[in-house]
Amino acid sequence: MDNEKRYQLLEKLSNAFGAPCFEEEVHNAAKEFVKDFADTSSDSLFNLYIKLKKNTGDKPVLLLDAHSDEVAFMAQSFLPNGLIKFVAVGSWVVTALPSQTLRIRCHGGKYITGVITTKPVHFATAEDKEPQAIEKLTVDVGASRLDELYTVFNISPGVPMVPAVSMERTKNGLAFGKAFDCRVGCCALLDAMEQLSKLDLPVDVIGVLSSQEEVGGRGAGLAARRVHPDIALVFEGSPADDSFTPEWEAQCAINKGVQLRHIDRTAIAHPGMISLAKEVATSKGIKFQEAVRRGGGTNSAHYTNLGVPNIVLGVPVRYAHSHYGFTSLDDCKATSDLAVALAPLLSPDVIQGFRDGNRGSW
To answer: What is the pLDDT of residues 164-201, one digit of tens each?
Structure first.
């Protein structure tokens, strides 16, 4: 896949509405992409499973995971003047929210645009200019009375909302848009599966675009128990640190390649798989960077907790968990290229070695 095709795929994935538990638009884009080489199915948590048509059923299972949801909001209650109080679905930096626009999925599946309200500077007090708790923020869709929300806009409690942002390409070729955590991971996963569909492999490959990662990785927990993989690669849109961290300290920089994450708040990577990934990336000339995280977490924890050897392949994303972000198509390519290079090496003996505690060169 060249970067033009990669951009077109990422654009569809990024622009799609995908609040946790409302990921269908993302899945529809993925289904269209894989229809010639894979079969798809879903479950009660709205995970999308992607099985290569060439799978035989008698090989170890390599699972590729990327979460399809994005941080979002949900309507909670309404003021008499038609403003909407809401809750966060996932984690946000609250100071970045006022005046941002939202795409709201009304009952029946129709979309409207709203804006997170702010008091004009002409009326703002000193207290108004201080950061506001999310409980004090509201969304305005243009209504003037509470009953309008129900009768005109078809809005009631539980309506989901995501940033109203369309992806663009920057002058230097980066992608600029929303939800790159983890739509750029989804893009890398789909790219990898298309390439793997053409190879003779020692594993059967099943992809899952997992749901509800932003609220605890609930979809991955079900996928891990349903698929029973022997080994896994977890794709992620990893928060970049290169815009606020010295170059010598940054571990997730744009255009520096795929991120191999050793540890975060929820999981420690399998040392043997890290060793193999580094050896393969070096031999293939695939750019990579290593990270030791003090916080954060990914779906890796759900596979690790079930004893499935796995590693995180991260694509750097600037300003993750906000309305807008940047990501590199070259980093996305490096991520899918590493997955494709690893898969042919995952023989039953290699996988069993990892499951038995083989640390590789560590």
So the answer is: 999 999 999 999 999 999 999 999 999 999 999 999 99
Other C-beta atoms closer than 10 Å to the C-beta of 109 total 10
What's the one-letter identity of residue 226? Answer: R
pTM of full prediction above 0.85: yes
Q: Cα(296)–Cα(306) distance, rounded to whole angstroms?
A: 20
Residues 93 and 154 in one domain: yes
Asked whether residue 132 is assigned to any structural domain, the reply reads yes
CB 261 within 8 A of CB 312: yes
Q: Which domain holds residue 293?
A: 3-70+178-355
Q: Is residue 171 part of a domain?
A: no
What distance in Å separates the CA atoms of residue 164 and residue 130, rounded to the nearest whole number?
Answer: 25
Q: What would the two tokens of residue 191 be?
A: 């790219």
Q: Is the residue at 360 inside a domain? A: no
Nearest alpha-carbon partner for 15 in 27, 30, 4, 26: 26
Measured CA to CA, the distance from residue 148 to residue 153 in angstroms comes to 7
